[in-house]
Structure formats: C-alpha cells, structure tokens
Amino acid sequence: MSDREGLRSRLSKLSLAICFACAVALIALFYPTLRVKILKIEPWTADWRTVLLSDRVSISYPGIVVVIINNKTLEGYPYTSPTPRDLIAKVVRSVDAAHPAVIGLDFYFAKPTDKDNDLIGALRMAKAPIVVGAIDRRYPQFTPAEFDFQKQFLAATGRCAGYNELLHEKDDVVRYTAAPADPDYPESFALLVAKSVKPSDLPSPTRIAWLLGPDTDLDPFATISAETLFQDTGMDAATLGRAQEQAQRLNGKVVLISGEYPYLDRHRTPLSLWTGSNMLGVKIHANIVAQLVDGRRYFALSVVQQEILFATLSVLGFVLGWYFWRRRVDFLSLGVATVGLVVIDAIIFKSARIVLPFTLALWGWFIGATLGHHLHAVWAASKVRYTRPHDID
Q: Which pTM does this prediction carry?
C-alpha cells in the first residue's frame, strides 16, 4: 500500500469514527439526563436574546408608576420589617388622592401588628380599585397560622388579592410567571391589576415579555419615593408644590406600591446579564402588568414542534453535508452556521415573537451536516477501494 493510500485509509477510518460520534450525540438527546446537560446553555442564549431584542421604549412607560417605601420614607419609624402599616396607610391615602386608575400593594401580610386597623381603614375608604399581594401555599417557609392571619386580614380589607406569580427556575432566574397553587388565590397579583384597567388574560406559566427602558439600566418605569407625595400641614410652599407635582404624575395611572430595602425582594432576571444586578420584585410585576395591558406576548414551541425543528435541521444539514462533502471550507462550518442561525432566530423572535430553541437547533444542524459530510467520505472511499482504487482523488 502506497503512502497516499495509507493516508486515505486513515482518513476514511477517522470519518467513520466521526460518524459514530455523531450517532452517539444524536442518541444522547433521547436520554433525559444527557439532554438536560446538552441544553443547559439554552437559558443563557435566551437571556441574551431578551437583553438585545426585547421591546424598548424611548421614554418612561406612560401607564405605570412605581411608588417605593425606602429608608428615607422610614425615617422616624422604630422598625422596618414588616413595613409599618400605618405608613403604608399614609402612602395609600396620598396615592388615592391623586386619582390613579388602580393601586397595587406589592406586600404580604402574614403577621399582626398594632397598626393593622390603620391600613385596613385606608384600604376600605380608598376610592380607587386596589389589589393586594398575597403569598400562597407554595411557600413552605410560612406557617399555617401566618396563612390564616393573611386570609383574615385580606378579608377585612374588602379588596381582592392576587398571588405572587414570580417563578424561579433552577438557576434562580425569573423568566416565567407561575401557575396558581392555592384555591384561595386563583389569579395572580399582576393579572388582577391589569384587569382593573383592561380585560386581560395570563396563561400560566407564560414567558415574561420584558420591556426595556431608554437608559443603560433597562428600567422603563417611573419610580417615585413615597415621602415625596406627602402633603402635610405646615409644609413650606415649595415642598408642597413639589408634592403636588409628584401627585399629578399618578393621575389615571397604574400605581404599584412596594418596599425597597437592601437585599430584600431582589430577583435575578434575564436583564441581570446586562445590568449585573437583581431586579426589585415590584419592577418585575410592572413588566407583567405592562405586557398584559399592551397585549404583548412571546410564544415558545411545544415539545413536538421542537422535535420537528430538530429533525428538519438535522435532515437539511445532512443533505447539504452530503452534497458539499468535497469542500474543505464551506457554509456548513459551525461558525458560519451559528451566525446564520442567530440571524434567523433574531428575525423570528423580533417579528413573529416566537422563541426558538437555539441550542437544540444548532445541535441538530451540526450533527446533520457533520454526519452527511463524513458518511459520504466513507461511502466514497469504500466505493473506490472495491471498484476503482486508482481513481481515488
């Protein structure tokens, strides 16, 4: 055997080994444990897609204002947790006087305090529709007594309550809303808030349609510190004027009230890839309310649709890999295929609002193209070996 024939034989064996590896890679997708590991990068790629391609506003979102109770608001109060309920009552009265479309209280009330009646009275007297946040029985850290108190407290307010719909995935990132888990709270907090201004529907779970703001922090919602709304007697004219200006910003708006304290109620989201920080829970609720009011939604492929996409790209890659098997550098290379799939994925995400399984698609394309190329090489080598060895090229 000549050196040239020996080289071809070794290359044929290499191609055969690569074909075997492709077959193993294909079979691995049908084994759940390996499939999870292979597709582990999928959330990361989806998060970057979210950061770069989600809907954006050039100014603050016009329909929602977030009012926060922070350390500045709490000056003079003896404790911060739970948030003093007479302070929440004062904030509710100030917001209600500004004639908002609806007030959402993003707190939970699991323990009694000596100021409960102040808040109950403020909620019952308010003219605006009010939705109160609630914890449901998916949270094992709360005791039956705390759930019972919450139920009694919320009943006393006479207001509707919705469960916290933030769903944390295995990597502790919030990407979806959670399904109801407690018959006492069949609808979510954000859904009830949105329904107060527009008939809305929230399939559960559903991917959150994040809204990007004009600044690098990606926050599209105007935020007001609660104490700037207070209009007390004895204020100087300038301070009173500023409070009145702030109050005007709430007129006819969805107003979400929550606490903002260091390290509390902070959640990782897809936008954390860009900001490097966690998002306040009320801002996530604001994103969900905004998508419901706007009617924005993203769609994910079903399992069957994902399998069809994978099979289609695998077969297409195989056919092209077989046909272009002689080319040393061609459009079937992983790098070029990745760029092509990124472009297609971005167009579909932006225009059709469909979230494709990018990692699965790339995996199918690469396996198909590689298998087609090397299987043709093995077939050609075997054909030449047994028919016309002198024609090997």
A: 0.87
